[in-house]
Amino acid sequence: MPTDKLTPAMDGATCRGCRRPLFGKDYCFGGRAYVPDANGGFTYSEAKTNYYGGFVCSRQCDFRASLELEQDMPGHGYSQKSLGQSAQRSLENNWGLA
Ligand SMILES: [Zn+2]
């Protein structure tokens, strides 16, 4: 059995936005993760890193992951609908301007 094949593992990476499994090790182990091709093909795109840590598979997931965290911060709340400046800048670095 080839062991160098990319396969999802129990301690594997997941998207912080939608929790879908990605290929690669969990964020805390370092390294990179890859987002499986939506068409079930053999191409992978490298997962982006969220501003607060963790992998994200899409702009929406990146946004959601940051927003969820910021809403939990002191002085913030669930009425917050946009990201703080730093997280927003990270989002734009990852995916470009909306
Ligand atoms: Zn996702």
Task: Please explain how this structure is put together.
The protein has 98 residues and is α+β, with helices and mostly antiparallel strands. It has one domain (12-92). Helix content is 24%, strand content 19%. The chain has helices spanning 59-71, 85-95, and strands at 12-14, 21-25, 33-36, 44-46, 48-49, 55-56. Helix 1 packs antiparallel against helix 2 (85-95). It is globular, with a radius of gyration of 15 Å. It starts with 11 loop residues before the first strand and ends with a helix. The mean pLDDT is 87. Zinc ion binds at residues 15, 17-18, 20, 56-58, 61.
Which descriptors apply to this entry?
single chain; 98 residues; alpha+beta; 4-stranded antiparallel β-sheet; two-stranded antiparallel ribbon; globular; binds zinc ion
Give a quick precis of the structure.
By secondary structure, this protein is an alpha+beta fold. About 25% of the residues lie in helices and about 20% in strands.
| Structure ligands | zinc ion
Based on CA inertia axes, which overall geometry fits? globular
What is the alpha-carbon Rg in Å? 15 Å
How many domains in all? 1
Low-confidence stretches: none
Instruction: Give the biggest beta sheet.
Output: 4 strands, antiparallel
Quote the distance from N terminus to C terminus.
44 Å
This entry's quaternary arrangement is single chain
Average pLDDT reading? 87
Range of helix content? 10-25%
Order of helices and strands: EEEEEEHH
Walk across the major sheet and give the strand order: 1-2-3-4
Structural class: alpha+beta
How many strands appear in the DSSP assignment?
A: 6
The percent range for strand residues is: 15-25%
Number of helices: 2
